[in-house]
Amino acid sequence: MFKGKTALVTGSTSGIGLGIALALARKGANLVLNGFGDSAGPQAAVAALGVKVGYHGADMSKPTEIEAMMAYAASAFGGVDILVNNAGIQHVAPVEDFPVERWDAIIAINLSSAFHTTRLALAPMKAKGWGRVINIASVHGLVASAQKSAYVAAKHGIVGFTKAVALETATTGVTVNAICPGWVLTPLVQKQIDDRAAQGGISADRARIDLVGEKQPSQQFTTTQQLGDLAVFLCSPAADNVRGVSWAVDGGWTAQ
Ligand code: NAD
After folding, report:
1. Can you give the residue range of the structural domain that contains 54?
2. Ligand 1: which atom is nearest the Cα of residue 224?
3. What pTM does this model have?
4. 11 touches ligand 1 (CB under 6 Å)
């Protein structure tokens, strides 16, 4: 389906980004991976699907490193056809205690990095007459939760950014959309479960069931594979006229 196309997924050494990278690779896309931690394992998993894979370790909080990553994708892969802005971090604290450095990091990684990758990717996509930008926002791009002010601000920001750039590209072959997951059991959420267990003096199992049941009516986690398959759909011809949407995959969270 995507043979000859290249996808760049930020934050794809783990969790949702890795799930999306694998789903796109299964459909034939070459992959540029990014993110911290072990990159050899994710690269091997993508390569096993028979596509070309590369890796760039740019820190998404640093615009000059993002520029270097996009230059690497251009020189080693001939550019980016599918851009998935996924890298993200979380910090949970009341606003008056929120560490200034954590606020700045969340805005830089969860929001501004998507501006930097998108501004660099768009002109070549338009020149080719086809492109896909998929921003991994969150239910927290649509509704808020207490103690997540930076994350909610960044995710509402990326939903707005998605709409603005979708309008700017509306008459082109480039579409820009956001995916808004509810709870997905990744390391980012496991940390919140562990904190909840420690604070409440309860088991990790109990904390996990409480966490997902509290906000997500389905009481089921969304899987990274399901999000990968949605990304594949957004890249398919069936989604040529899907523009500027923020697609919730949240077990009913935002229907309440
Ligand atoms: P994760 O912690 O499993 O993965 C995050 C990825 O981002 C990792 O590859 C990590 O190395 C990378 N990363 C972090 N900081 C980076 C930086 N400065 N530069 C480059 N890479 C960096 O988390 P996840 O749950 O898979 O989250 C992925 C995205 O999905 C995030 O934007 C998150 O906000 C969003 N999201 C997650 C959930 C959930 O329930 N897990 C729900 C909604 C939205």
Report:
1. 6-184+222-255
2. 26
3. 0.98
4. yes
